[in-house]
Amino acid sequence: MTQLSRRHLLTGAAGAAAATALTPFAASSARAAAPAAGKQGPSFYRYKVGSIEGTSLSDGANTFPMPDTFVRNIPKEQALAAAEAAYMPKGMVRVPFNPQLFNTGGKLVLIDCGSGSTPNPNVGHLMANLKAAGVEAKDVDMVIMSHLHPDHTNGIKAADGSLAFPNAEIKVPAADWAFWMSDENAAKAESNPMMKNYFANVRRVYTGVPADRVTKYEWGKEVAPGITSIDANGHTPGHTAFAVASGNARILVQSDVTNIPEFFLRNPDWHVAFDIDPVKAVETRRKFYDMASAEKALVVGFHFSFPSIGYVEKDGAKYRLVPIAWSPAI
Amino acid sequence: MTQLSRRHLLTGAAGAAAATALTPFAASSARAAAPAAGKQGPSFYRYKVGSIEGTSLSDGANTFPMPDTFVRNIPKEQALAAAEAAYMPKGMVRVPFNPQLFNTGGKLVLIDCGSGSTPNPNVGHLMANLKAAGVEAKDVDMVIMSHLHPDHTNGIKAADGSLAFPNAEIKVPAADWAFWMSDENAAKAESNPMMKNYFANVRRVYTGVPADRVTKYEWGKEVAPGITSIDANGHTPGHTAFAVASGNARILVQSDVTNIPEFFLRNPDWHVAFDIDPVKAVETRRKFYDMASAEKALVVGFHFSFPSIGYVEKDGAKYRLVPIAWSPAI
After folding, report:
1. Whether B324 contacts chain A with CB within 8 A
2. Does residue B33 form part of some domain?
3. Is A13 in contact with B177 (Cβ distance < 8 A)?
4. Could you list the residue range(s) of the whole structural domain that residue B107 is in?
5. What CATH number is given to the structural domain containing A160?
6. pLDDT band for position A31 (50/70/90)?
7. Is it the case that residue B23 has pLDDT exceeding 70?
């Protein structure tokens, strides 16, 4: 270092002031101002579960005016107050979306695949974040759906209608498939605009997907190496959580056992609008979180804030989420 | 999409099973298994403060066996219990490090610059994350030190001893400079190994830095466009926090008003080993956090987990940190 060899020693306050500058300081104002980046960095985060490598991938986060019925069984004012207490913009609710990729050593397995191509600029970023993480869509071996709501399953199709993961087996919960593909159920949902849309969406998305690509899975099975499906129904009839395990390590992928934790972990008896059987969903939630908190398990939540991983603690009749400390290395 | 044109319609559970696959599914097992990435993604996070663009940059995180005196005024067992309650590995303490970059429109201003070149592989990652964020070290106009502890200031030098930010003005708190550069203070610290090391380190790091590169700043001044220095002494005699403001937006850069929040926000009266005047540090902490919680200010903490930004709430005589929800877009 030239400065060192020139012995510009600043060994004291007095010395500092007296030191002669042989290397004049080029005024930075002579250089052009650096432009603002204007965009966020990639949102992917890696973690290990034993020998399995997990990658949390953001599909985006949506902030929108809270619908009157976002929480069905409490006054809207109470939900708005909870949102504000969680620092969401006044009158709004914020919902993030986080599919998970697992490299099991032999297989690249994606759990849920986001909203896919959509006019909403706040979501549909899975493929960009996957690419940022160095993963090619063609290398994904399997996409496992936790359930068949659009924010979890629509990303199976690219904008041009082709399969977004051209070499992947698609695994769907048998009970969800049976429910959504039932013409009888669809007919019953005609009077409910939200449900009517959901039925139409599932059919639209899976239209054209070759039958041999889609495998229906049951609960309590190893659906991929180290990944076991867990009955978590209530949110939808086939809604599934997962245990990802390797050696002594285990992580629970809760899918939508709760929607946003600021609401439904803090208030586990609240019914989110999207629960098909909200009473069963509450029962599932309490059972799941009593287990997760007792074993101090790491939990991944599709609707937790990125990187969407944390510990859940009992807090009287409620629960609280303690986000993991971001690790800059794995 | 070929599948669509071939009308492999899966419109029901029965239809799905019956559909003929004209596009046989290439078994993914025929492809080579994707290798694990084996490393974390970049750790930078962008946010806006009015028209100012902030970037939180991880310099790393260090997890180490808790020294007996990490918290001076409580039994070690109590600190170990707090660490375990915060999901740190048993017997260990985890300390992250997060410098902040602000693009003020005219200037690229870095607050603190990490540990620099060090044999410890867990730290010293600022330059890599800065590069990942698309910023060249030569484009940084100013590096402002909150105080002159090694994890904040050593990164001013590259591994070869040259200036890591070759075009940057270096701003140091006048009171810290006077304290650390005083031969009288250094002599008094001879009997305290930690303080002796700190005095030696400051002198080593600033040896060879041309005097005209280093500006001493006072408190209550706009040290860079939109960035005002705040007296936060106690941790060190010149320890400084910052308010970054633009339009109606404001964020507080707390520097080391608390070390890790799991310990010192939850227990604001605990004395971290590194506080030079721990009683004053506690007074500063309470004053700072009473203000921050009252105005619901966003707070950046050098030792908060990346992205190191959150809201602080009063919780009786304690405080709690509510990390911000990660925004996948800015």
Report:
1. yes
2. no
3. yes
4. 45-323
5. 3.60.15.10
6. confident
7. no
